[in-house]
Amino acid sequence: MENKVLKAFKKPSVLPGFGITLGFTLFYLCLIVLIPIAAVFMRTLHLTAEEFWRIVTEPRVLASYRLTFFCALVAAGINLVFGLLVAWVLERYTFPGRRLADAMVDLPFALPTAVAGIALTDLYSPQGWIGSLAGWFGLKIAFTPLGILVALTFIGLPFVVRTVQPILHDMDRASEEAAVSLGASPWQTFGQVILPEIRPALLTGFALAFARALGEYGSVIFIAGNMPMRTEITTLLIVTKLEQYDYAGATAIAAVMLVSSFSLILTINFLQWWSRSRTARA
Q: Are 261 and 211 in contact (CB under 8 A)?
């Protein structure tokens, strides 16, 4: 058994050997990911358990948790639905301006977050094009949680589209045609043939959009209004504490966000693995 493993590692490859690549991978991950994350937790060791609990359970902090996680979850859910729709249209239909529409999907990636925040605030403020129209119906978007939701939806859409689009592109349509020929309705074909194939990609896109929304700052602070207990997100609260030189308080809140985000993403990845294994068994 050991000889087989060693032979597998010694297979000819264009890249350097297993030992070199593994060592570089671990070094790079430690330098870029693990050490900064560990520094956050190490900073919180200066606090006692009572001090840590008092900081992370202050009413203002709890309100920011609720707002951040709720808006991130709803925005990721919206992007899950409409991201799938956008990816489907781009892959299954040919129409004038298709390449332009496909390129526009990546705009939130390329656009600086501060620019996105200013543009969204100008558009959805009471004096903006959309904000003024919404005002006719008594709806205020900017400087409310709804404005935060709009910003998080804007920055999260490409994650779902770009994750699902390659799967739709590579799918074999023979199974869809067979289902239709056997009398399946369009909804039955989608639910029983297409959805099992794209479900892992959908979960991945949802997780990426959710994670990005949790840590978003630049595009939100302009449209949120940043009112404590109402429209103040957790990342802004962390920055506020840093500006007040309260490093221990900032890292304590950041540690809670790290643990919560990691737990949720780990759960989603487990669901993704379960979905793939179930699809493979089927």
A: yes
Q: Quick one: tokens of 15?
A: 């890249």
Phi (first) and psi of residue 179, to 5 degrees: -65, -40
The H or E element containing residue 29 is helix 18-29
Whether 231 and 142 have beta carbons less than 8 Å apart is answered as no
Angstrom distance (rounded) from CA 119 to CA 123: 6
- Amino acid 148: pLDDT: 95
For residues 80 and 59, what is the distance between their CA atoms, to the nearest angstrom?
A: 31
Q: Are 224 and 148 in contact (CB under 8 A)?
A: yes
Taking a C-beta distance cutoff of 8 angstroms, is the pair 223, 143 a contact?
yes
The model carries a pTM of 0.85
Model pLDDT, residue 237: 92
Q: For 220-265, what is each residue's pLDDT tens digit?
A: 999 998 888 999 999 999 999 989 988 889 999 999 988 888 887 7
Domains present along the chain, CATH in parentheses: 49-281 (1.10.3720.10)
**Rounded Cα distance, 233 and 76, in Å:** 16
